[in-house]
Design a protein that fits this description.
Largest sheet: 5 strands, parallel
Helix content: 25-40%
Number of domains: 1
Shape: globular
Strand order of the largest sheet: 1-2-3-4-5
Low-confidence stretches: none
Mean pLDDT: 88
CATH architecture: 3-Layer(aba) Sandwich
CATH class: Alpha Beta
Distance between the termini: 38 Å
Number of strands: 5
């Protein structure tokens, strides 16, 4: 098994790439502690690559992933070719999953959350740097504890966590 040290971010590239780019900007900022090892920096894919090649490269990235972030926008639940496939792979590999609601909802958003994620052990958070950073730093260990204790289903942080972070 590969050493897992990256964070994989899945999203609707046609409609929600600006949110991913903002996460990259947070990471690049010198005065912000937000940090993640971005799996999308690896194995650049050509837009002319066929589906099998793209999925093979994505699988390589996922095999090097310690945390999977799913950015959920208006149309994410309808994306099956790659985004759903990425979710399936993360679930099969038992990678801790952070579902980030781009509409800033702090719990599972049953209207927007892809069906495949609705009953899975994943933490659902709002789109904000501080809570995403908190999830990156804390969800992996809590996910492992929940797995050990047979806890299932969607999770969310208490309002007190958001308050502590100034949100």
């Amino acid at each position: 098994m590969a050493y897992r040290n990256k964070t994989y971010v899945a999203f609707d590239a046609d409609n929600d790439i600006r949110y991913y780019r903002m996460m990259q900007a947070w990471k690049a900022s010198d005065n912000v502690s937000f940090d993640f090892h971005d799996a999308h920096d690896l194995n650049n894919l050509l837009t002319t690559s066929n589906e099998q090649t793209i999925k093979r490269k994505l699988k390589e990235r996922l095999n090097n992933t310690k945390l999977f972030i799913l950015l959920v926008g208006e149309k994410t639940k309808n994306l099956h070719k790659f985004v759903r496939w990425e979710q399936e792979q993360a679930l099969n590999l038992d990678i801790p999953i952070v579902v980030v609601n781009l509409n800033k909802k702090r719990k599972i958003d049953n209207e927007r959350c892809p069906a495949i994620m609705r009953n899975e052990l994943a933490i659902h958070v709002s789109y904000h740097r501080k809570i995403i950073e908190y999830a990156i730093d804390n969800w992996g260990d809590l996910h492992r504890k929940h797995r050990k204790d047979d806890v299932t289903g969607p999770r969310h942080y208490l309002e007190s966590v958001y308050e502590k972070l100034g949100l």
